[in-house]
Amino acid sequence: MTFNFWGEVPTDVKAASANKIALLLRLGLGSVFLVGGWWKLSRAIDAAQSEALVTKYMAANGYINSFFDEYLFSGPDPFLTPLAFLTLLSAFELLSGIALLAGVFVRALSFIYAFLLWSFVIALPVVTVSGLESEVSSHFSPALLVQIRDIGLSGMCFILFALGSGSYSVDQRFLKRGMAPEQVNWNHYGLLLRLSVAAVFIVGGFFAGYGHIKSFVDIPVLLVAIGLVLASGHATRLAAIAAFAVIAWYSVGKLSFDATLWNNLNAIKREFAFLAAGWVLYAYQGGRAFRLDALFKSPMKTILGKSQQA
Asked: How does it sit in the membrane (predicted)?
């Protein structure tokens, strides 16, 4: 592919480029699951830290609401305990991260996580009743907004599932599977990728300051601008550079010499995937589907599709 910063936006990518895109997304997502899995598992199997881990997840401002608490752990003889559940989940997450980094079972794992990541949204305990004064510390913003980064990660997983295992993968090199299609319609997957990143910036900008809403910098208008430009499909490379820079700045700011290596990595684990996505959008842009100019020029055709020719 000939590089031109302001040049033609590609509508298709060949298998070689699709493999590179899959590699970047695979490494980003694999890092998320490797770090998150080990951080939780190391605490779950440590008697001195396991109770604190369970408390963190089961608290009113944790990650498991009363519905899933009753569904998973209720009854006189429950099949699972919270600690057993967290141990199994974190072990699976750790193994998934290792597998993705190595490039094995990539399509299967990306398909599973594309849906599993949404469970973190529906399991989050939230209190959003208007006028209700709660004495319990909980999440007071809608779960979809709090977990918007996981929604973005889900979009990346769908793209990885479609593209295959990518370059330098065990799947392709040794098992002869997970090959990318010879020609990939980048309009579809580029749209999904740019919206997966844009949503995080738009939510972080418009709802900056609300409880547990992730805003990378204290300049909401900048976040909104980056998100809207990405969503528009225009100047994607410029927006991708800005998104990458903002996330990198945020990540560096989260690091602390007083924290352990794994605590530092866990604090920015999701950002690894969004940095990878920003790199992909810079290199390959976001396709031509649902671009702003098309919506203005031919709104009916863009939204409803082409009409049948007489």
From this structure: Multi-pass membrane protein
**Are residues 271 and 255 in contact, defined by beta-carbon separation less than 8 angstroms?**
no
Which residues partner with 14 through β-bridges?
183
β-bridge partners, 13: 184
pLDDT digits (tens, 9 = 90+) for 94-119: 999 999 999 999 999 999 999 999 99
Q: φ and ψ at 13, to 5 degrees?
A: -130, 145
Question: What is d(CA 114, CA 169) in angstroms, rounded to the nearest whole number?
Answer: 20
pLDDT tens digits for 285-298? 999 988 988 888 88
Query: For the segment 158-189, what is each residue's pLDDT rounded down to a tens digit?
Result: 999 999 999 999 999 999 999 999 999 999 99
Residue partners of 257: CB distance under 8 A and separation at least 6: none
* Band (2; pLDDT cuts 50, 70, 90): very low
Total H helices, total E strands in the chain? 15, 2
What is the structure's pLDDT at 306?
Answer: 74
CB < 8 Å & 24+ apart, contacts of 7-12 = 9/233, 9/236, 9/285, 9/286, 9/287, 9/288, 10/186, 10/284, 10/285, 10/287, 11/185, 11/186, 11/187, 11/287, 11/288, 12/183, 12/184, 12/185, 12/186, 12/187
- Residue 14 CA to residue 1 CA, distance in Å, equals 9
Collapsing DSSP to helix, strand or coil, 14 comes out as: strand
* Contact criterion met (CB below 8 Å) for 175 and 104: yes
Assign 8 a pLDDT band (cuts: 50, 70, 90). Answer: confident
CA distance 217 to 204: 9
Domain positions in the chain are: 12-299
C-alpha Rg value of the chain to the nearest Å: 21
Q: Could you give the CA distance from residue 133 to residue 129 in angstroms, rounded to a whole number?
A: 9
